[in-house]
TrEMBL record:
GO terms for cellular component: membrane. Belongs to the cytochrome P450 family. Signal peptide: none annotated. Keywords: Heme, Iron, Membrane, Metal-binding, Monooxygenase, Oxidoreductase, Transmembrane, Transmembrane helix. One of its GO terms (molecular function) is monooxygenase activity. Its cofactor is heme. This is Cytochrome P450. It comes from Calocera cornea HHB12733. It is found in: Membrane. Its main location: membrane.
């Protein structure tokens, strides 16, 4: 059992602490890591371009409270362009999502 007074990483406060810590936190963190790695493998991330051909750099470091007086925050919405790193990759990714019944 983890003592209630143990030091917790600030990035894991949303999972609770002490005896009532979320039992699925490791699964959640690892799932997010795999999803991010998969996205980095599959896509080039680019800023959108405006009518004059200039990149529109959005406020990716801007956050908002999800609910009043809650410790969790979420980023403000921003636009991004995802370009597949390989030709035909988007079709394979869509087929994989359909196979897993995710779309």
């Amino acid at each position: 059992m983890i003592p209630v007074t143990s030091e917790a990483h600030p990035d894991q406060l949303g999972f609770g602490r002490g005896r009532r810590v979320c039992p699925g936190r490791d699964f959640a963190i690892n799932t997010m890591f795999i999803a991010c790695a998969y996205m980095l493998w599959a896509f080039h991330f680019e800023w959108p371009v405006d009518d004059q051909g200039k990149e529109v750099i959005c406020g990716v470091n801007e956050f908002r409270d999800t609910l009043p007086k809650v410790l969790t925050v979420s980023p403000t919405e921003f636009d991004i362009v995802l370009r597949p790193r390989k030709e035909g990759l988007e079709l394979r990714l869509l087929a994989a999502l359909k196979e897993q019944e995710m779309i």
